[in-house]
Structures are given as C-alpha cells and as structure tokens.
Design goal:
By secondary structure, this protein is an alpha/beta fold. The protein is built from 7 helices and 10 strands.
C-alpha cells in the first residue's frame, strides 16, 4: 500500500447464515486490503463464498464478525440509511443479469440512480448521456434494452454504475452472459475506465479471461482466501491462471 490508506479493508471477516446445528459459515476469517485504483478479481469454485465476500465488502450484506472499512468508514458504525447513502454516493454495481428496466430507454435506465437520490431531472439526464458517452453508447441513449445487444446492455449497466462518479464499482460475473468476443469488449471498457478515470473495480468471476485484466486475483475456497496472485497488465490474455 506504500503507506497509503487502503480504499477497502477487511479484518477477520466472518459471515454465518442460520444458527446452531443448521448454521453455515460462508466466510471464515477473511482479511484483505484493496488499494485505490486497483482491479481485483475474485475466483474460486461455485459456493466458495465469492459473491458473499463481495456483498459483505460492499455493505449489501451484514457481516457476523470482524470489520469492513471503505474509505476509512466502518460499516458497522453506520445506520442503515447512512449506509445506503454511502453506497449511492461512492459505489456502483454491475451484475451478470443487466437488471435494466425494459420499458425505459438507455438514458432513463442510467439516470434512475440519480433521480432516486434527489438529483433534478435535467441534470440527471445530462449526466446519464455523459455516462453513456463514456461507454461509447451516446447514439443509443434513446434505445430500449430490447433494441440493444447483450454487450450493449451490459455497457448501459456499466454507465449506470459510473453515473455517480463512484470510487469503486463492484461487479459480480459481469461477462457471464456474454460471448468471448463481447467479453473482451466489456473488459477492455472496464480497464479503460480504471486507467483513465481511476475507478477501482472488484470483480467476481469464474472466467480466467476476465481475471487476466486484474492487478491481483484472490482465489477462494470454503469461505477463505487461500491464494493471491499478482499479474502485470501487459501479460493479460495469456490464459495462464490455471483455475477454471
């Protein structure tokens, strides 16, 4: 970290579901730090805790034990409405399912988070079009999701995630529904946003071709981070991760 405070810090994080004999330990003492401006991928077999870790780090889910800090803020010390406001102002989310509203245009989908936080309609529309321009879809601003390809829909979802100019974007299998060519286009966009705008990305993926874009990959199994590997950006797409 070179002495700089980590953007995201997790200390001995546990997540349990249920109680007693029926309890399930989804996370078991995870500790990690993520620096501002990194791309981090999280890999591992199904059910290993990847999505649970992302949800706990982002505050979508409460932790059972331990501590999570984002930009120095301790989630446990925030009330629910404070946590919601924190996420809305500092974070973006991208999922495998694009979660676009079918009856709304691309611009209307992108501006929705702004309208929900009280931004005036004129400003929200201007910022939505600007975000679509950043992902190369300005000319599709008035198209509905059904008129867009899968890759274009995911780019709209990315525009929605970055419209509030977040410090960090959390992405859960963002290319899981895309073919290999479109996978590259979407990951090239994510890498561009990271390099040019300094947005930190934390990406859950099962795809080694996604992980090669990351500065570091955390490998999980049975609720624990069991290995971490760093990779140089100029080595990406060599398919050398060895975890499928």
């Amino acid at each position: 970290m070179s002495g700089e405070q980590a953007l995201i810090e997790a200390r001995d994080v546990w997540k349990m579901y249920g109680h007693g004999e029926n309890s399930l330990e989804a996370l078991k003492g995870v500790s990690l730090e993520i620096a501002r401006g990194e791309i981090i991928s999280i890999m591992g077999p199904s059910g290993c805790g990847k999505t649970t870790l992302l949800n706990c780090l982002s505050g979508l889910d409460d932790i059972s034990k331990g501590e999570v800090r984002v930009e120095g803020a301790d989630y446990a010390a925030l009330r629910p409405h404070q946590r919601d406001a924190f996420r809305a102002s500092r974070m973006g989310f991208v999922f495998q399912a694009y979660n676009l509203i079918p009856v709304l245009t691309a611009a209307e989908n992108v501006e929705m988070p702004l309208l929900c936080t009280g931004v005036k309609p004129k400003e929200a529309r201007e910022r939505a079009v600007e975000a679509l321009t950043r992902v190369g879809l300005k000319e599709r601003a008035n198209h509905r999701p059904g008129e867009l390809s899968g890759g274009q829909q995911q780019r709209v979802a990315i525009a929605r995630a970055i419209v509030n100019k977040p410090s960090i974007v959390w992405a859960d299998e963002p290319t899981g529904a895309l073919d290999s060519k479109t996978n590259v286009l979407v990951m090239d966009l994510i890498e561009h946003l990271n390099r040019v705008e300094g947005i930190t990305f934390v990406i859950v993926t099962h795809n080694p071709d996604v992980a090669v874009y990351a500065d570091r990959t955390l490998f999980m199994d049975s609720g624990k981070v069991i290995e971490e590997r760093a990779k140089q950006r100029n080595d990406r797409r060599d398919g050398a991760w060895g975890w499928t």
